[in-house]
Amino acid sequence: MRIAFLTTRLEKPSTRYRVLEYIPYLQKAGWEVSVFAFGRRRVDRIKIFWHLSNTTTPVLMVYVG
Fold first, then answer.
1. Torsional class of 23: left (φ above 0), alpha (ψ -120 to 50), beta (otherwise)
2. What is the per-residue pLDDT for 7?
3. Cα dist. 50→14, 43, 47, 53 in Å?
4. Structure pTM?
5. Under the phi-then-psi rule, with left for phi > 0, alpha for psi from -120 to 50, and beta for the rest, what region is 30?
6. What b/e readout covers 23-60, taking b as 16+ CB neighbours within 10 angstroms?
């Protein structure tokens, strides 16, 4: 199973404490983890969703603001 975390910036404290510290535990449990930073431009956001939709594996997306 795949999980994708969407955040505004990777260096934000909320991202570090809510996402990044749990990645090793999720991977150990068998999850394939991806973290994406939303760009301000619409084309950057489209690239993220295109990347995530270009697979047959279901993806759980979590937004961390």
1. alpha
2. 84
3. 25, 10, 5, 5
4. 0.71
5. left
6. eeeeeeeeeebbbbeeeeeeeeeeebeeebeeeeeeee
Per-domain residue ranges of the chain: 2-64
* pLDDT for res 27: 94
Q: Give the type of residue at 19.
A: V
Tell me the C-alpha distance between 53 and 59, whole Å: 8
Tokens of 24: 């090793």
Q: How far apart are CA 61 and CA 65, in angstroms?
A: 13
